[in-house]
Amino acid sequence: MTIRKPPHLCEKMQDLRVEIDAIDADLIDLLAERSRYIDRAVVLKEAEGLPARITDRVEEVISNVATRARTQGLDPVLVESIWRGLIEWSIDREAEHLGA
User: Fold this and answer.
1) How does DSSP classify residue 53?
2) What is the pTM of this model?
3) Which domain holds residue 85?
4) Long-range Cβ pairs for the range 17-23 (8 Å, 24+)
5) pLDDT tens digits, residue range 16-31?
6) Whole-angstrom distance, CA of residue 81 vs CA of residue 6
7) How far, CA to CA in Å, does 22 sit from each of 4, 19, 54, 60, 92?
8) What is the CATH number for 75?
9) What's the number of domains the chain is made of?
């Protein structure tokens, strides 16, 4: 991650767009990294006899990100929606390899 110009110092829309595009690139990099951990989870879950969906863990992750969102002044409802989609995608990816 790089040091960014704070939003209040962006004097033109083009400056703001450059910063937003850089944030988007970082988010994609982080999502790609997260997906590699999901791929590793498949191997570990298979070895440990765990299913793709572990409901308690899903809710723990949602609680964690909602709490983090609140501390950052971000809407936890938005974050929960995004993460539920991300988690469902991850579970589907795991289930392809582990079975239902």
Assistant:
1) -
2) 0.85
3) 11-98
4) none
5) 999 999 999 999 999 9
6) 27
7) 9, 5, 34, 30, 29
8) 1.20.59.10
9) 1
